[in-house]
Design a protein that fits this description.
Blueprint (H helix, E strand, L loop, with lengths): L1 E7 L7 E7 L2 E9 L4 H11 L5 E5 L4 E4 L2 E4 L1 H7 L7 E2 L2 H19 L7 E4 L6 H9 L3 E4 L1 H6 L8 H15 L23 H5 L2 E3 L2 H7 L8 E4 L4 H9 L4 E4 L3 E2 L2 E2 L2 H12 L8 H11 L4 E4 L2
Parallel strand pairs: 1-3, 1-4, 4-7, 8-9, 8-10, 10-11, 11-12
Antiparallel strand pairs: 2-3, 5-6, 12-15, 13-14
Helix pairs in contact: 1-2, 3-4, 3-10, 3-11
Protein name: Quinate 5-dehydrogenase
Length: about 300
Amino acid sequence: MKTVLSVSLGSSKRNHCVETSFLGVPFRIERIGTDGDLNKAMQIVRELDGQVDAFGLGGIDLYLYAGDRRYIIRDAYKIARQAKMSPVVDGSGLKNTLERNVITFLQKNHGLDLRGKPVLMVCGVDRFGMAQSFVDAGAIVTFGDLVFGLGLPIPLKSLKSLERTAKVVAPVVCRLPFKFIYPTGKKQEKNSSRHRYLYYKADIIAGDYHYIKKYMPEEMLNKIVITNTVTKDDVEDLKRRGVKVLVTTTPELNGRSFGTNVMEGVLLALAGKRPENMTEDEYSDLLAQTGFGPRVEYLN
């Protein structure tokens, strides 16, 4: 049996384990949250190194992207370097394939016309492939990287402004303790009323679910939410708020959509390779073989 373990800085309340199979290969997939404890995450990776086929980093990114530039987040690197034998992935190998293709999938299979549609991406550098796809489809996209990541009331209105801002800000931000730029542990359970006007202006809310949830207003009538990891409770909460359609970029496994870091770990385990040896074409081929695709749920 192959084993993929997602070690997350997120809340331990969201822990989950499932046994399933892909291409006839049995898998055990588990998510362990450390409630924002970086040292605990490092310890888990260090102690289980070599005992799992792949580690996924949850609740933190190893890399941020803007255009052709890649930035390494220091705290994530501290966790990743604890592993000497098992590969460590953060999902970025899939974000530029799986998440980019989700927008095309929604257009072709669900008739989603994005021309002129107002879209809020809570963080563009976290999902730059998806950001490009929205823009290419003709959507009017607002990027909340400075608003939700740094608390600065400066929405970005174009990919060029996102790239320019990232080149200046990312090298500094990546050196900060991750808890200053992203909700970890119990902070993921708190909600803020700031910046909700950006939600009201958009028809589609896209990006990392913890950012979405932290600032999400009670009233989300007829909104489309495109995100990553959600639990059954999250789905019920979105339904209660009036969300019309929920799209997760990864499939549902026993009532839970795991993050791209887990799915990338599964593909690595199937390929028997390390991430630095995987090509985009190999990821695409395995995605097609496994049938990994988005989950689309009509809630209201």
